[in-house]
Amino acid sequence: xxxxxxxVALLAVGASLVFAGSATAAFPNFSDCPLSNPSTAGCIDVQxxxxxxxxxxxxxxxxxxxxxxxxxxAAEERTPNLLIPPVGTNGFFATPVPVPGxxxxxxxxxxxxxxxxxxxxxxxxxIRIDFENQGVSVPVKVRLVNALIGMNCHIGTDxxxxxxxxxxxxxxxxxxxxxxxxxxxEFGIAPPDIIRITDVLDVENSFxxxxxxECGLGLGLINTLVNAKLRLPSAGxxxxxxxxxxxxxxxxxx
Length: 254
Prior knowledge:
Elements: H1 3-14, E1 42-55, E2 58-61, E3 66-72, E4 81-84, E5 92-94, E6 97-98, E7 115-120, E8 128-130, E9 135-146, E10 150-155, E11 162-166, E12 186-190, E13 194-204, E14 212-213, H2 221-230, E15 239-251
Antiparallel strand pairs: 1-2, 1-3, 1-15, 3-4, 3-5, 4-8, 6-7, 7-9, 8-9, 9-10, 9-11, 10-14, 12-13, 13-15
């Protein structure tokens, strides 16, 4: 099913429902959708409203720190839509969040507080948007920022990322994790051509998390400290992520 046909079908269904609430100035944000790109068949804005990353029992609240936005290519049936990033960006936007407990597990010691910034690992082509299941596949790496570990400390790399396949259905993880279930969101329409899907819960608990790299100086001692703190590397089946998303979509008539 093409992007336009899928969205037209959603509009037809949504027109028969009553929707509460109103759009805000911040959502959806199509301000930098690359309309001049001839491959752009629509615009999308996926905004996280809350979330949590768990690595072997260590929780990092994600809050509303993540956003994916840009243009969308048309897609044939059973194929994902590809993201076209806004000019000068990769289409993946994130704000820093504090790591609970800091670097040593004692936040009040000067120099131990740490910020985490989720980044896209590799090119924009790694992002896949699944409209039918309201899911997103994206390879990421997490930058840790602290005076001791520097600005280049990462969990995951472009070549060895954390591969997230976020779905709104039920997962099938390796042991010891058990299946978890997300849910699809509520549809709303902003005439004439914008679809709002709110409170989608996307989940994933099959991914692995590699060890830290490029953290500070000292022959890898800081890498070892970060790995000990977060219990890295962590194999698939020990980690999970859940993200509540709002999704805005605008399509263009042919």
